[in-house]
Amino acid sequence: MTKKRTITPWWIFIVCCFISMIGFGLIVNTIGLFFGPISQEFHVGRASVALMTTLQNAAAAISLLFAGKVMKKVNLRWLLTACFSIIAISMLTLAAAHSLTHFYIAWIIIGICQPIAITLSIPVLLSNWFNQKLGTVMGISLGLSAFGGTIFNPIIADIITKFGWRGGFIAEGLLIGLILMPLAASIRPNPDEKHPAYGTTTKSESNSLLNGITLKEALHQPVFYALAFAMLALQFVSGSVQHISGHITNLGISPVLAASVVSGVMIGAAVGKISIGYFLDKLSTILVLLVYSLFGILGWSGQIFLTNSTLLTISAFILGLGQGVCLVALPYLIQKQFGEKDYSNILSVINMLGAFAMSLSVYLVGLFFDQTHSYNLGWTINVIAYILSFIAIFITLRKKA
């Protein structure tokens, strides 16, 4: 196999790393920086401003219903390029916004494009191009989303301080437009005889039809419902992470130390996503799921029982490790269980359930706190979510085997 034939999968991997780092890092992880300045300029409450992210998440969840089908029918190179173009333009128009309605419309449009551009593109492209080392490359690329948030939060915050929130949106729009649009236009969506997937060993293998089953066939398998339940339960857990800083300050710990606990979650999530992908390629799937589920259980239990800031930060790092189950292991397992044939469609349907669960969890965990004056009920639900999701996957995988 020539060098020309082997370099394409790794270029796809590099593109996916940038999509994760810039896409998640900007669109998902920095939006909170804009709430205060926009609230002050328009003289409205932060809830009114934050509504744009609620609408974004709702639009993304609905978009996931048909995103997988669209990705199968339209050339991914041009589809991703178009989505990033629309997102970049939407960001840039916000620099001229003079009403909250403009924000709501722009973020709904971004939400519609987001599943194709960011959520599904990474696992779908990597699944197409890696017959081997899929867990490793998926873990590394998705793990960079946390590093993206770490890098871009101080950069965007500094831009907002110097040039206002309008300058912040211009910066984000330009970064997406000037980096992700060209990268999307550079990809080759699917392998072929000249450019085989990594791990393809024979000519006939590179020419073969995609293996696997359709969504309709997957719906008849118990493992589909186990994976869907796990995605729903663990995305609920992911959504509740937004309340950790509130939990820490509610314990009487300073906001500065609360921020360090949140950083512990982000660092743990990055390490968890990268490491779980590697171990999924090397070790027993059940063993890896057990270990990382235990991380989730121990980490969230620590948030219930611990009160020392140092121990809470360690606990946060451990629960961050556990996030690798939801963010890497489940997309990996979906591909391994159902194959490539209808992967984007199956993944989009299961992700849709997770998107709704995540949007609900932010509200519900806040409601639990209002009723009990503690976040412990929410954290207990998170522990149960890890236990039940592991049991469901363990039982169905054994039956399938």
Order of helices and strands: HHHHHHHHHHHHHHHH
CATH superfamily of the largest domain: MFS general substrate transporter like domains
Q: What's the CATH class label of the largest domain?
A: Mainly Alpha
Q: If helices are DSSP runs of H or I spanning 4 or more residues, what is the number of helices?
A: 16
What's the number of extended β-strand segments? 0
CATH architecture of the largest domain: Up-down Bundle
Q: Biggest sheet, in brief? A: none
Q: What share of the residues lie within helices?
A: over 70%
| Anisotropy-based shape | globular
Averaging pLDDT over every residue, what do you get?
A: 87
What separation lies between the terminal Cα atoms? Answer: 34 Å
Low-confidence stretches: 203-209
What does the model show?
This protein has 401 residues and is an all-alpha fold. It has helices spanning 3-28, 32-42, 46-73, 76-94, 100-129, 134-185, 203-207, 215-218, 222-240, 244-250, 255-282, 285-305, 309-322, 324-338, 343-372, 376-400. The protein has two domains: 3-189, Growth Hormone, Chain: A (Up-down Bundle), CATH 1.20.1250.20; 210-400, MFS general substrate transporter like domains (Growth Hormone, Chain: A, Up-down Bundle). It is built from 16 helices and no strands. Helix 6 packs across helix 11 and helix 9 packs antiparallel against helix 14 (324-338). 50% of the residues are buried. Residues 203-209 have low confidence and may be disordered. Keywords: Membrane, Transmembrane, Transmembrane helix, Transport. Pfam families: MFS_1 (PF07690).
